[in-house]
């Protein structure tokens, strides 16, 4: 008997025995082979637990404006060392009813401790902070009202096991909001309310202090422009403040609000001459050089832009408050997200250099040039990101220096050095390589 016939006969005998024994031959379905990871399973169980405390018409929501994209958070609200669950919900049968739940544990069982009800279309802001530093936290809930860009702030406090609305029905309205530190009394609330009824537009900036159970305005001033962004942070050595971005037509006026001995006041004002709304990748304020101090972005424009480069591709100059009424540059970066590199222009070179964007076939060059002793402009060096395939087929590359490569982006970064010295500064390949940072690649 051939081997193939023996195998078939054995399979038939095995199947007959299974049928005579009354057993069923069950094939595993794809669903039974796929088990969710433990972390996902725990997350599902947590969601089911929280949902069990909601009404039939209620569901969890993820507030889009919050930094943590989650429908619930673990927070120690009563400072007893154990975390509670704060979950955000909305009423599906009402377009304006929403709020949050506070779930606590007793004898390893979760129960509904508090439920806050607010009215709006979405949750815009949420923070838990001991505003007056008395050992009891306040809960701040900001909601979109549905009326233009206006929001409304609810304030709560956990008092004698009860969640008390300390807004007293007089909720603060705002368009932008942040918390700032008050050296004397803990934390203050800073808001901006915009007036769009006039052509130029204006923003009312108010600082609220929470003392003795009441929210009291301690600073109120109106400025021209729309306040599109505000951020509190350290703005100098041993100095804190709130940066305000006041947008006008085609420029942004930046104000620095700081607490002084006489109270809160604007201590610095600086216009940025670009419409930063068109910039997709860059934040207006951030700690660019990781020194713990907040900087603001400004753009160094090319003298000529013979390319498709936009504001996103201009050299970014990061400015830091000088402690008086001015700003100093702490970084200057030519950055291309699409090409995967950052080129830091030495700050000492900035006062002597100019630059252009120049297109040559499929390559876009950044040409840096300076004025010589004869008051003539001469190109000092040029840099470009070249596709690997284009580079492999280029014939005239003798004058180019390879600075690095990026296998992920399939880019070769090159430089052409026309002058090795300008205004007392030395330019060579090693100096340019030290200025280059490559995402997922390597320098030469």
Structure, explained:
The N and C termini lie far apart (70 Å). This protein has helices at 3-20, 30-33, 38-51, 388-392, 429-434, and strands spanning 58-60, 72-75, 84-91, 97-106, 109-119, 122-129, 138-144, 151-159, 162-165, 172-174, 176-182, 186-195, 202-211, 214-224, 226-236, 239-248, 251-260, 263-272, 285-286, 295-300, 304-306, 315-321, 327-336, 341-344, 353-360, 363-371, 377-387, 400-406, 411-417, 421-422, 425-426, 436-438, 442-443. It is elongated, with a radius of gyration of 31 Å. The strands form seven sheets. The protein has a seven-stranded mixed sheet with strand order 21-25-26-27-29-28-33. A six-stranded antiparallel sheet has the order 19-20-22-23-24-32. Strand 22 (315-321) and strand 23 form a beta hairpin. The longest helix is centred in the N-terminal third of the chain and has 18 residues, at 3-20. By secondary structure, it is mainly beta.
In what order do the strands lie side by side in the largest sheet? Answer: 21-25-26-27-29-28-33
Helix content: 10-25%
Give Rg in angstroms.
Answer: 31 Å
Strand content: over 45%
Please give the largest β-sheet.
7 strands, mixed
Give the termini separation: 70 Å
General form = elongated
* Continuous helix count: 5
Class computed from helices, strands and strand pairing = mainly beta
Q: What is the typical, i.e. mean, pLDDT?
A: 86
- Unreliable parts: 1-9, 11-38
Number of strands: 33
Quick description:
With 444 residues, this protein is mainly β.
């Amino acid at each position: 008997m051939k081997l193939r016939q023996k195998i078939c006969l054995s399979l038939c005998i095995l199947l007959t025995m299974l049928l005579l024994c009354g057993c069923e031959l069950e094939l595993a379905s794809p669903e039974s082979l796929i088990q969710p990871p433990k972390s996902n399973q725990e997350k599902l169980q947590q969601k089911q637990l929280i949902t069990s405390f909601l009404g039939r018409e209620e569901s969890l929501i993820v507030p889009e404006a919050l930094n943590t994209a989650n429908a619930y958070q673990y927070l120690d609200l009563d400072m007893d060392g154990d975390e509670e669950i704060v979950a955000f919900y909305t009423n599906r049968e009402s377009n304006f009813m929403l709020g949050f739940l506070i779930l606590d544990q007793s004898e390893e069982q979760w129960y509904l401790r508090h439920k806050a009800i607010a009215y709006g279309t979405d949750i815009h802001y949420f923070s838990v902070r001991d505003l007056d530093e008395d050992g009891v936290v306040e809960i701040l809930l900001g909601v979109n009202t549905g009326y233009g860009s206006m929001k409304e702030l609810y304030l709560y406090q956990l008092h004698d096991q009860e969640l008390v609305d300390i807004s007293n029905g007089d909720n603060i309205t705002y368009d932008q909001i942040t918390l700032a530190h008050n050296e004397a009394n803990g934390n203050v609330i800073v808001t901006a309310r915009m007036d769009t009824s006039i052509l130029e537009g204006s923003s009312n900036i108010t600082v609220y202090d929470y003392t003795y159970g009441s929210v009291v305005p301690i600073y109120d001033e109106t400025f021209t422009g729309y306040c599109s962004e505000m951020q509190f942070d350290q703005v100098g050595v041993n100095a804190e403040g709130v940066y305000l971005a006041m947008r006008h037509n085609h420029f942004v006026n930046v104000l620095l609000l700081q607490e002084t001995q006489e109270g809160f006041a604007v201590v610095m004002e600086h216009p940025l001459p670009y419409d930063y709304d068109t910039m997709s990748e860059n934040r207006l304020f951030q700690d660019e050089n990781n020194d713990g101090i907040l900087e603001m972005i400004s753009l160094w424009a090319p003298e000529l832009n013979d390319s498709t480069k936009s504001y996103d591709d201009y050299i970014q100059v990061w400015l830091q408050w000088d402690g008086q009424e001015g700003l100093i540059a702490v970084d200057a970066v030519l950055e291309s997200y699409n090409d995967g590199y950052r080129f830091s222009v030495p700050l000492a070179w900035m006062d002597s250099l100019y630059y252009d964007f120049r297109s040559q076939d499929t390559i876009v060059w950044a040409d840096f040039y300076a004025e010589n002793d004869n008051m003539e402009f001469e190109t000092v060096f040029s840099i470009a990101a070249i596709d690997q395939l284009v580079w492999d087929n280029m014939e005239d590359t003798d004058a180019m220096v390879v600075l690095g490569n990026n296998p992920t982006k399939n880019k070769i970064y090159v430089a052409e050095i026309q002058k090795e010295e300008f205004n007392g500064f030395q330019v060579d390949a090693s100096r340019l390589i030290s200025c280059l940072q490559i995402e997922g690649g390597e320098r030469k």
